[in-house]
């Protein structure tokens, strides 16, 4: 069972040789022994008892049933290699520090890989305690206990014959019906967009739509899947809008409707999923913060609350589930 | 339900969004079909790419296969 454990308990699992994906503070991850694990900094979690911030325990995602596991560190220039190394008969778990070149390159370049959708890649973006200014996200490569500020760590898991991994997302938002928003270029920032075909300043549009605080994401339609783009900041001076993930040309976006109760919305979203085959999950820290999820539960799905989620590509304000069938 | 052969025209029709009413809840397939419309994707054989996805995920794509083969 994936759960929060003490450093001593996690160390025992590492010494037992289990492949692990770990989430915790920088100080805790630095105390762990070498082994078959990857880790990333984050202090926010969803547990069976509810959402929490923990500075003294590490969240452990076990990856059961593996036939073979390898691990590696990839720099920003090696995204194609990461996807090449990912096993077709299994899955890959990755962690990248938020707001880094490595994550940007994964988000923008990784999606072009021809066999991306035959190789399930899940993971998350490492972050910081939002009450600890000055902290920086980092990832750890357990094999040599090295810490990286701008690289992606990966566990490549091959499954036994007959087992199949698949990725599902739970998006608690619903797109508003009205305006279609489009962008001319790929990017993590935008000043202008097209709204129903008319060029407009994006910040002005968001303000007029009642989203001046940016809490509601833009939702891109991907053949039936709604993929959120969370809004990081809106600069009132320049009008620049920054996102936690990239927007793409050719995708039609709509602003999400407001959510009254995140706990209820997650319960409804998860009720449509088969939670029994989930072996790994992560959720967005913005859902934790905006939904006031501290002490509140989101079904049986537990995991780190992160600064970006990965399900084939970089996702934001989304819950990602990895199933093994 | 048998998987159509790699050369069956249904794969290209699906890649071209030319199967009216086709729906799927499989996230990977949703993203793949979206990429089929992306001129930057650089896909060489779109029909084959869709076929390979179905071949791999056939055990969990029963509803999607039914939509393909009843047309």
What does this structure look like?
The complex is a heterodimer of chains A (325) and B (71). Chain A is an alpha+beta fold. Chain A is built from 7 helices and 27 strands. Chain A has a 6-stranded mixed beta sheet with strand order 1-6-2-3-10-11. Chain A is globular and about 60 Å long. The model of chain A has no long low-confidence stretch (mean pLDDT 93). Chain B has helices at residues 10-15, 27-35, 46-57, 62-69. The model of chain B has no long low-confidence stretch (mean pLDDT 89). The longest helix of chain B has 12 residues, at 46-57. Chain B starts with 9 loop residues before the first helix and ends with a helix. Chain B has 4 helices and no strands. By secondary structure, chain B is mostly helical. Classes of the chains: A alpha+beta (325), B mainly alpha (71).
Distance between the termini of chain A: 17 Å
> What fraction, in percent, of the residue positions of chain A are helical?
10-25%
**Which structural class matches the secondary elements of chain B?**
mainly alpha
Low-confidence runs of chain B: none
Main sheet: strands, sense, barrel of chain A: 6 strands, mixed
Q: State which percent range the strand residues of chain B make up.
A: under 5%
Taking Cα atoms only, what radius of gyration of chain A do you get, to the nearest Å? Answer: 19 Å
* 3D shape of chain B: globular
* Approximate strand percentage of chain A: 35-45%
Query: What is the strand tally of chain B?
Result: 0
Largest sheet of chain B: none
Number of strands of chain A: 27
Q: Calculate the mean pLDDT score of chain A and round it.
A: 93
Order of helices and strands of chain B: HHHH
**Unreliable segments of 5+ consecutive residues of chain A:** none
Q: What is the share of helical residues of chain B? A: 40-55%
Quick summary of this structure?
Helices cover 16% and strands 39% of the residues of chain A. Chain A is built from 7 helices and 27 strands.
